[in-house]
Every structure is written in structure tokens, then in C-alpha cells.
Amino acid sequence: MEASSFAKNPARSGRGWAEHMMTRPGHPLIQTRTVTSNSFVSFFMCNLNYHLEHHLFPAMPWYHLPRLHRLLQDDYRQAGSVVYRSYSRFVWDAVRTGPYGLALQSLPTKATPTA
After folding, report:
1. Residue 17 φ then ψ, to 5°
2. I want to staple 113 with a disulfide (CB 3.0 to 4.6 A). Which of 6, 26, 64, 71 is the partner?
3. Residue 114 lies in a domain
4. What's the pLDDT score for residue 92?
5. 103 confidence band (pLDDT: 50, 70, 90)
6. Cα 58 to the chain's mean position, in Å?
């Protein structure tokens, strides 16, 4: 993502970073993440902060994404999916570890890449 995009719309760019930065490609359960955040944020984002669920079931109505998130918890644990409780925690991890370098070393490697 280029710097000019961030300057034009920092909220959208930041959300995009939180959804895909510091993830491992190759498996649907680990190549994006969910940030559960709070009800206020979820409402104004139409639950798009449940981004992992959105990628797995793109036709799912936005108001069912939190329920889907709860139903898939066992699958997430088995695959090593990344779920953050807040955007501020994600930003802290990105600043602390870097968007690519050390961050990828701490990510789960359990999920098997798809062919």
C-alpha cells in the first residue's frame, strides 16, 4: 500500500493493514485476521472487522459475522488463526515487531498451505 493512499484515507488504510499485514499466505485460516474490537467499532464497520469470517464466507450477511466467528473458534485454534481483541493491540504489535520481519516469525505455522 503506498503512502499517498494512507494520507488520503488513514482509517481505511489502517483497517486494511490490520486485516492482512503480518499474516502468512497460503491457507484461508491464516492469510487474514479478525479484530473483534468493540460494539461501536463493529457497528460502524458493519462487522467488516470480522474479516477472516468475511473471507471464508463472502456471501454471509454482515450481521451474522459475529455469530459465525463464535462457531468457528475450534477451527481457528487448530489452524493457528490470528484474532486480535483491538486495533490498538494490532498497531502495538506492528510497531513493536515490524510489519514483515520479526512479526512473521511469531505467527502460527500450524495451517497447511492449500494447493
Report:
1. -65, -45
2. 26
3. no
4. 84
5. very low
6. 15
Q: How many domains does the chain contain in total?
A: 1
Q: How far apart are CA 53 and CA 49, in angstroms?
A: 9
Nine cell digits for residue 37: 474490537
For residue 86, tell me if it sits in a domain.
yes
| Residue 9: domain span | 3-106
3-class SS of residue 84: strand
SS3 83: strand
Cα 98 from Cα 15, distance rounded (Å): 16
Quote the CA–CA distance of 46 and 103 in Å, as a whole number: 28
pLDDT above 70: residue 39: yes
Is residue 55, in this structure, part of any structural domain at all?
yes
- Tell me the pairing of strands 83-84 and 34-35: parallel
User: Which three cell numbers, joined as nine digits, stand for 93?
Assistant: 504489535
Mean pLDDT of 60-65: 95
Q: Which three cell numbers stand for residue 96?
A: 513493536
